[in-house]
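Sample intake — ECF-type sigma factor
Collected from: Marinicella sediminis
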Amino acid sequence: MNQSRIPQEEITLLLDQWSHGDRAVENKLIESLYPYIHKLAHFQLKSKSASALQTTEVVNEAFIKLNHHKALDWKNKSQFLAIAAKVIRSVIIDQYRAEHSHKRGGEHQHLTLDRIQEFIEEPDQQNVNWIELDDLITQLSAIDEDAASVVEYKIFGGLTIPEMAAVMEVSESTISRNWQFARTWILMQFK
């Protein structure tokens, strides 16, 4: 099940076959990509406030939701991981909303300038209100979709700058500029 042994081209071929309805490749594809999706989910669940869900539950729910995207014209593994980050964001936010909808002030803490700055610097070390963060990303998306995607990939996907550059098919310097803009914009929402 070690994904490093499966070449990028083979994963792309499996994604293509899967998107065209070949159910026979589905298990091999899941086996190939499971470690990547598990890494994304685990990155999020390091935070105490992310969810009561276990990593495996998030991965399973993500694969169920990803199954709805199988008709896409898959280009490569990077595109798959980008969509997986969006799906994981959705799973975690939905679960967080369900867990905290009945709580008044609950266990989560509202975002403040200091908290968001700490969270941006080390997202896996902070207790954060995921609903507020999700709302900020949605607002940013209306202003600059690429910058919002960089935030989503970094926070919900744990992707590095080179990985984001591959996913978005832009230079690393463009990713850095988008991240700097997004970071500044988010921080300005607390002034």
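Post-analysis note: The radius of gyration is 17 Å.
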